Amino acid sequence: MTAQIDRPTVDTVGHAAQTPEVDQPWAALGLKADEYASIREIIGRRPTSAELAMYSVMWSEHCSYKSSKVHFSLWGENTTDEMREKLLVGIGENAGVVDIGDGWAVTFKVESHNHPSYVEPYQGAATGVGGIIRDIMSMGARPIAIMDPLRFGNLNHPDTQRVLPGVVAGVGGYGNCIGLPNIGGEVVFDDCYQGNPLVNALCVGAMRIEDIHLAKASGVGNKVILFGAKTGGDGIGGVSVLASETFDAGGPTKRPAVQVGDPFAEKVLIECCLDLYAAHVVDGIQDLGGAGLSCATSELASNGDGGMQIELDRVPLRDASLRPEEILMSESQERMMAVVEPGKLDEFMAITDRWDVEATVLGEVTDGDHLVITWHGEVIVDVPPRSVAHEGPTYHRPLERPAYLDDLQANGTDTLGRPVDGNGLKSDLLTLLASPNLCDKSWVTDQYDRYVLGNTALAMPDDAGVVRVDEETGRGVAVSTDCNSRFAKLDPYTGAQLALAESYRNVATAGATPLAVTDCLNFGSPEDPGVMWQFRESVKGIAEGCKTLGIPVTGGNVSFYNQTGDIAIHPTPVIGVLGVMDDVSRRTPSGWKTAGQVIYLLGMTRNELAGGEWAHVVHGHLGGLPPAVDLGAEQLLGEILVNASRDGLVDAAHDLSDGGLAIALAEAAMRYGVGARIWLDELCERDAIDAFTALYSESTARVIVSVPRSEEVRFTDMCTARGQVHARIGVVDDETDGLDVQGQFTVSLADLREAHTGTLAAVFGG
Amino acid sequence: MKVGVVTFPGSLDDRDAARAVRAVGAEAVTLWHGDADLKGVDAVILPGGFSYGDYLRCGAIARFAPVMDALIPAAQGGLPVIGICNGFQVLCESHLLPGALIRNDHRKFNCVDQRLVVENTQTAWTSDFEVGQEITIVLKNGEGGFVADEPTLDRLEGEGRVVFRYAGDNPNGSYRKIAGITNERGNIVGLMPHPEHAVEEGYGPSTDGLPFFTSVLKAVVNA
Amino acid sequence: MGHVVIDVMLKPEILDPQGQAVGGALPRLGFEQFTEVRQGKRFVLTVDGEVTDEHLAAAAEAAEKLLSNPVIEDVVSVRAEDPDQ
Amino acid sequence: MGHVVIDVMLKPEILDPQGQAVGGALPRLGFEQFTEVRQGKRFVLTVDGEVTDEHLAAAAEAAEKLLSNPVIEDVVSVRAEDPDQ
Ligand SMILES: Nc1ncnc2c1ncn2[C@@H]1O[C@H](COP(=O)(O)OP(=O)(O)O)[C@@H](O)[C@H]1O
Ligand SMILES: [Mg+2]
Q1: How many beta carbons lie within 10 A of that of residue C49, not counting itself?
Q2: CA-CA distance, A179 to A241, in Å (whole number)?
Q3: Where do the coiled-coil regions begin and end (chains C, D) (predicted)?
Q4: Ligand minimally distant from the alpha carbon of residue A390
Q5: Is the pLDDT assigned to residue A345 strictly greater than 60?
Q6: Residue B197: which CATH number?
Q7: Which of chain C's residues have a Cβ under 8 Å away from the Cβ of D29?
Q8: C29 touches chain D (CB under 8 A)
Q9: Is the pLDDT of residue A255 over 70?
Q10: Strands, E, within chain D: which ranges?
Q11: Which pLDDT band holds residue D71 (cuts at 50, 70, 90)?
Q12: Which residue ranges form the domains of chain A, and what is each CATH number?
């Protein structure tokens, strides 16, 4: 069939050398004049159209991090040797890897697929999940769980009804079909995401330490193999255009072909890769994600010690009419590239055959230092691979603290009308429970399989997802993702640290020792100095916060241009923290079960309502300074929670965050339908606050725990000995229907549930 | 005592099914879709998942896998076989069980801890339950709506071949709230919910799935 | 290159949740004139050269065997593609 | 009672995992003659009385607006149902 198609003449290297004056569409491909000039300088002639395609996608914001890179020195500067101890693979690879003990390694990473998910919610979200899974696979790991931090515009906006159900169905459609438990995520609504929803996806994988694989092409004569799906015209230019283009209201957008995911193909690819790793036939491996073959070939070659030669016409095509530039840029999903010793080629092919996975030798590692790509025998690319993959442009974009910040921070919450009696406190509780950000999310999370693989020990709606890694010992990991972007809007440095603190606390609440961090930095346009300042502040906040907590950032992703017209989203640095447990069967759930257990509130409560849910929901207010961060207190609290879990001192623990104590109490009661009597007087006296502040403040470093009577003395002794602030605020009580907040109000379980459930179903249908 | 677990491309709960088999002290044997060979097993589990992506109809393509050429006659001959979720769909597509499974009436994938009532304890897979017993195991699928024509439904009811019925609200629009059925002989059982996700304390909603696997051990020993 | 088109619909007595959902959405968009919607599948099979009677017979057999489940679905047509479509 | 039939197919350049799965299964069942399979959707909309031009126009509009996603799909036909089908 291919033979019948007339091949248009291609732009060869020889031709390019002789025709320096040819006018090239570098601007349409998103390159700046000086970037084009520097490509010409690097290769000493004009680029061929294939080279231009490669440089343009690889030098896009999405692939080259050209606006953010200069700030990444903050990661390294804030990572101490001690933090590096458990870090087996750090920033710079497809995903970071940490040592969780007993010879096990875990890799995890969060990535964005925001813009594609706005254009085609189902496929955008699905391929977002597929992409991050391949990153994890490429480290040599078996993927073991996924999470999906999501942000949408106003719940009642008609476009949210287009976007949300599609995104959720896409995350579920891909994750369920590929057989990975979804163990958590976020569903947040805010008007700032109306024209620019955020679809982030996180994947966790596990392997034995000796099985770690890296993306590098070494060993002259080793074969370079493309395997998986055929290459089609999917998302050509998508990575550079889609990820970098803002959606101006009404304006024309470049709409490249949308990628369609095939989770079945990826499931087969996972099993096939694991068989390949087990047979030790893979020398280097790289997934094909954004920028497709351009990225995989140049990164593999750049990370290796030689050059690489590729015959591009060997690539199996779904569409025989694709031109070489298009093949290089195609973002067809479910493909991987491996580097294999010639002697192991047959075994490699036998394994791919068994899984019905198509595998094609495209070329080999050479002793040169160039990446050379031919098309039917003619050289169309001849470049130093580092210049494509790693030496793209770097911008020192101007930064400036936004002028509006002073007014915003001055506009605090003290003037907002507060409830004056128990009835008012109760009605605010019910209002908050029914609000979009605090309501029951099972309309979303019930669409995700949280049980597949049989290792899930904790998932939605608990504070962290917990999965077993080693079936013999029960060793496993806990992961949580968090970010309150209103805090980050008020103060990006503090806001980013608050996200880190919350995620850290959630992992500890489940009983795990926090170990490592991944982040997905969702921001507006880097060309806006105010946004760039927010970005810098956030990175600094995370990096310095991680140093204080002693846990390294192992990888992540930057997503810029999240804005509609000139209006950027709130800065949204989503933080994922991973913790380890020697036996996940001792994980601490968030709900009360046993009557008679004593409820303690750990941590201090201050008058901190700015940026919180109460101000947002009840008053539609955003202003003031976010809650103070105290990472030392978080660390101490984490140690208390982990020790308490290990020694069996607590049966339930629930983190206090959005909506404060009131919401945490209601959730703990609703979880298993067991109520409690609560008293606030001593707490109010100790912290010099009123009942309203006790219930709705969002002060950090706080958790409620339920302690069996038999352990109460040991528990309080431990707190006292370590200086952990604690207050006895109630008792789990199956005689109480719901919550009895003494002296203030009582609210039945039925009323709590009626408020809490149904908000999403009312909008999206039952 | 060997229980085979079939792996089709796209099977997902095969590892879980094997774990459940081991949990009751039996040996789990992997059966590959491409081999028309049952390796001498005493019973077979068709696990959950999305065989071949379930892109056409669930179970439709898996039904033609070589392993089914061996399994279909063996099942007809009395070999205990259970189809869980996608496995149930494969059994229906193979006409080893009547009816079919269609998209949930609410059109969404749904993962919940589901209550079921056990109605038939005469099958190879349910003898360790009590009639009328209520159990809670995981239900998770997008196409779990059991349908059949009225005469077939009446026959299933009349012959006591409805093995499990959903308790509480109908989770997916299944006709007559049917969650699982058996063949005339009682050796083949298909159900949408997942007993293999309820065999270990701490990793699922209950351990109500264990009797499925202990039952079949007895059925094999007594056969 | 020829094409055989095969149409498969759920039997009328089988519940069609997808068709129902579309049927429910149409009036909200201002389309009041449709009293019912059913959703089925359409397969397009490509053959080398013209579509022959053998192709059609094979397609009909594939339609019965694989592309439809007779318990719930009907094959409503198997035909060479109308060139004007 | 009349029927309007709407056919929607994925655009040719868009990956069709469903059609691919069927295309992969056919040879295993002995059908070797089909070089490609694409799977699409077929909607049957019922109207009271005969199908009029207004019905067809409304159906065509509904097809563009709701029944297909123009980013990945084409509406390949909107027609009154052939009475012989
Ligand atoms: N916000 C961030 N924080 C830390 N590391 C980051 C961040 N963004 C990107 N990285 C790291 O930079 C490297 C390149 O990122 P990316 O291009 O997303 O990887 P990939 O090509 O695998 O998708 C990765 O190691 C990634 O973890
Ligand atoms: Mg990668």
Answers
A1: 8
A2: 31
A3: none
A4: 1
A5: yes
A6: 3.40.50.880
A7: 62, 65-66
A8: yes
A9: no
A10: 2-10, 36-47, 73-80
A11: confident
A12: 8-77+213-392 (3.90.650.10), 84-211+452-587 (3.30.1330.10), 588-766 (3.90.650.10)
**Mean pLDDT score, A648-670:** 98
Share of chain A above pLDDT 70, in %: 96
Sheet containing A223-228: give its strands across.
Answer: A284-287, A335-340, A223-228, A359-366, A307-311, A371-375, A378-383
Task: For residue C17, give how far its alpha carbon lies from the nearest alpha carbon of chain B (Å).
Answer: 5
pLDDT score recorded for residue D82: 66
Q: Whose CA is nearest to atom 16 of ligand 1?
A: A557
Q: Give yes or no: B194 in active site.
A: yes
What is the CB neighbour count within 10 angstroms for residue B180? 30
- For A392-422, write each residue's pLDDT tens digit: 999 999 999 999 999 999 999 999 999 999 9
Is C85 within the bounds of a domain?
no
Length of chain B: 223
DSSP conformational letter for B62: G
pLDDT in tens, A415-458: 999 999 999 999 999 999 999 999 999 999 999 999 999 999 99
Q: How many domains does chain B have?
A: 1
A172 CA distance to ligand 2 middle (Å): 22
What is the 3-class SS of C11-53, one letter each residue? CCCCCCHHHHHHHHHHHHCCCCCCCEEEEEEEEEEEECCCCCH
User: Complex ipTM, two decimals?
Assistant: 0.91
Which residues span the domain enclosing B23? 2-222
Q: Which of A87, A138, A542, A557 to mutate to test the pocket of ligand 1 (most atoms within 8 A of CB)?
A: A557
Rounded Cα distance between B59 and B108, Å, is: 18
What CA–CA distance (Å, rounded) separates B164 from D33? 44
For A573-615, what is each residue's pLDDT tens digit? 999 999 999 999 999 999 999 999 999 999 999 999 999 999 9
Segments forming the whole domain that contains residue C59: 2-80
Residue B52 tokens read as 């071949």
Any idea which residues of A carry the catalytic annotation? 62, 113
Nearest CB to A123; choose among D20, D24, D72: D72
Q: Does D61 have pLDDT greater than 60? A: yes
D85 in a structural domain: no
B33 is catalytic: no
B85 is catalytic: yes
CATH number, residue D69: 3.30.1280.10
pLDDT at A245 over 80: no
Pocket test for ligand 1, best of A71, A74, A91 (most atoms within 8 A of CB): A91
Tens of pLDDT along B128-170? 999 999 999 999 999 999 999 999 999 999 999 999 999 999 9
Instruction: Mutation target for B interface from D22, D26, D29: give the one with most B CBs within 10 A.
Output: D22
Neighbours of chain D (3+ CB pairs under 8 A): A, B, C
Assign C82 a pLDDT band (cuts: 50, 70, 90): low
Q: From ligand 2's centre to the CA of B151, what distance in Å? A: 55
pLDDT confidence bin for A91, thresholds 50/70/90: confident
Question: Which residue's CA is the closest to the ligand 1 atom numbered 10?
Answer: A556
The pLDDT of residue B175 is 96
Q: Does residue A56 contact residue A249 with C-beta atoms inside 8 Å?
A: no
pLDDT tens-digit profile, chain B (223 residues): 999 999 999 999 999 999 999 999 999 999 999 999 999 999 999 999 999 999 999 999 999 999 999 999 999 999 999 999 999 999 999 999 999 999 999 999 999 999 999 999 999 999 999 999 999 999 999 999 999 999 999 999 999 999 999 999 999 999 999 999 999 999 999 999 999 999 999 999 999 999 999 999 999 988 7
Check: CB of residue A745 under 8 Å from CB of residue A695.
no
A580: Cβ contacts below 8 Å, ≥ 6 apart: A100, A101, A106, A475, A476, A477, A478, A512, A513, A515
Cβ-contact A587, A513 below 8 angstroms: no
